[in-house]
Specification:
This protein has about 575 residues and is of the alpha/beta class. The longest helix is centred in the first third of the chain and has 26 residues.
Length: about 575
């Protein structure tokens, strides 16, 4: 059963796109320079902390309604779902419903219709909307983004801050700047010939399928195509639906016209089937599992004859990320970097370190120090500041990660050095777990776990060549990797050998924490299409340039000169 609700204008503070609300970007974009959003401290007694606690209290005690938004109308269906707090899964944070196939088709129709007018807006006017959105996120709605991310995705204060505010704001500001820079190029014109390049959006619509683990990714995957002149169907993750809806509402308040981004919670296969069978699909902007991305790709391949244009595929699909340590490494950096990369946000970052390779000469010292830190790390509610990490996202993640820990417990080639506990009675809690693996081909060293599990392999320093080959070839992924060494020749040699093992490589630093504009992010192999979100070329993926040649001279004889030779 479908229920159409009142217009979204009545639910959001909706602002029409107009010059009266403009930041005058058309006059200042030529010298606009984006800067990274500063990370705030949220110290006890600070204004930021007090504001955050008020919004946490509000959302904790409210089950928010999250509708389907298509154009300027909101809908609900009888297929009702709830987003719960992962650290207290009996508490419902949001109520939402799945769009059925008919509603998804309606969203496609609305997006295709809206695309013509939106694409014809100047780049400056489109950019203006998202610069306004970034401004709203900096202050007015910062704590809403923080609170919905902390409660819905079980992020601590710092993890929510670097994600739902700083990174999201950076994506908007830097995408605007990078898009403007990328579209400055105009071709050579000579004599009577004037050549121009028009940076169009693409015909049809983009489908943005976004994950639970970063609110910022939801905002980026939906807004980047729109900045470039496209319209979007945004399918959020069920387990991040409230924070993502908060982002969507900010876009609308900033002046995004109806139908440019349509917010469409839906069952994955139903959504995928609907968008990949539409002849108007321009592309898919995706973050999630390899299997889901491959399914979407296969569906598009099967429908190729039906599309008006060849759809573009952008995907980021996770990794099996490594920290590789040389005997010359600074062990303080190794220990602290590995703890942070492996266990912050419960190891649920695509870039999280899950395999650590230690030389025999310093392995025991590093292991002892890692275990000592693990013993004092606290796990619990993200609302308690002493907790370093909280619950994993849901029951499926809990069961998957538990299965890997149980494998280690039963395997003769594995030894659990620290952690190994889990409890889902109240929240989906898993202890940070450190495992020593004797078999370099064990699945703990080859398969993505996506949880707070660190697997260690101790290598013989005489067999470095074999080790490098294993690191490069023992997993299907190629996302992030870190090399810890003070010996510059070793760094150069290992970096060269492993150059295809990662899309983001770190030297003497942890494998997580890429910053927009500083470390453009993405991996290859089965980690994705390596389109480098947060970099200068990303927005070009959503454009379909039109080259125009204009001749101001009269066309002469149709014959070539050599044809008239006597």
């Amino acid at each position: 059963m479908l229920r159409r609700c009142k217009s979204v204008v009545g639910r959001l503070r909706h602002v029409k796109l107009s010059s009266t609300r403009s930041l005058s970007t058309s006059q200042c974009l030529h010298d606009y320079t984006a800067v990274n959003e500063p990370i705030r401290d949220y110290l006890p007694g600070s204004t930021d902390r007090e504001r955050l606690e008020k919004r946490l209290s509000y959302f904790s005690n409210t089950c928010s309604d999250v509708p389907i938004v298509i154009g300027d109308d909101v809908y609900t269906t009888s297929d009702v779902r709830h987003q719960v707090m992962p650290f207290d899964h009996q508490k419902k944070l949001a109520k939402f419903s799945y769009a059925d196939k008919a509603l998804i088709q309606k969203a496609i129709d609305v997006a295709v219709k809206a695309q013509r007018d939106w694409e014809r807006q100047s780049y400056e006017k489109r950019a203006d909307v998202f610069l306004r959105a970034a401004k709203l996120m900096q202050e007015e709605y910062r704590m809403d983004l923080m609170a919905t991310t902390m409660l819905g995705q079980a992020k601590t204060i710092i993890q929510a801050e670097i994600d739902s505010t700083c990174e999201l704001i950076d994506f908007l500001n830097f995408n605007v700047m990078f898009g403007h820079e990328a579209t400055k190029y105009q071709p050579i014109s000579l004599g009577s010939i004037t050549n121009t390049l028009s940076y169009r959006g693409m015909e049809g619509f983009w489908a943005s399928v976004t994950p639970f683990n970063f609110t910022a990714i939801g905002g980026n995957l939906s807004s980047a195509p729109a900045i470039a002149g496209n319209t979007v169907l945004w399918k959020p993750s069920d387990t991040a639906v409230l924070s993502n809806y908060t982002v969507f509402k900010i876009f609308r308040e900033a002046g995004l016209p109806p139908g440019v981004i349509n917010f469409v919670p839906a069952d994955g296969p139903v959504f995928g089937g609907a968008v990949t069978s539409s002849p108007h699909l321009a592309g898919v902007n995706f973050t999630g599992s390899v299997e889901t991305f491959e399914t979407l790709w296969k569906s598009i391949s099967a429908n190729l004859p039906n599309f008006r244009s060849f759809p573009r595929m952008i995907g980021e699909c996770g990794g099996k990320n490594y920290h590789l340590v040389h005997p010359s490494a600074d062990l303080d950096s190794v220990v602290n970097g590995t703890i942070m990369s492996a266990f912050e946000f419960g190891g649920q970052k695509c870039s999280a370190c899950s395999r650590l390779f230690l030389p025999q000469s310093c392995a025991q010292e590093v292991i002892d120090r890692l275990v000592a830190i693990q013993e004092v790390i606290k796990v619990g509610s993200p609302l308690l500041v002493e907790n370093y990490l909280s619950a994993v996202i849901d029951d499926k993640a809990f069961a998957r990660i538990k299965g890997y820990i149980d494998h280690a417990r039963s395997s003769e080639s594995c030894e659990i050095l620290a952690g190994g506990g889990y409890d889902d009675s109240k929240g989906y809690f898993i202890q940070p777990t450190i495992i020593l693996c004797k078999d370099p081909n064990d699945k703990l060293l080859t398969e993505e776990i996506f949880g707070p599990v660190l697997s260690i392999y101790v290598y013989d320093e005489k067999e470095v060549a074999d080790l490098l080959t294993r690191i490069d070839s023992n997993t299907r992924y190629g996302l992030t990797g870190s090399i810890y060494a003070k010996d510059s020749e070793v760094v150069d040699s290992w970096k060269d050998f492993l150059r295809f093992s990662a899309g983001n490589m770190y030297i003497n630093d942890k494998s997580t924490g890429s910053v927009v504009g500083q470390q453009p992010f993405g991996g290859a192999r089965k980690s994705g299409t390596n389109d480098k979100a947060g970099g200068p070329h990303y927005l070009l993926k959503f454009m379909s340039p039109l080259a125009i040649k204009t001749n101001s001279a009269t066309l002469g004889d149709w014959r070539y000169k050599y044809m008239t030779e006597k």
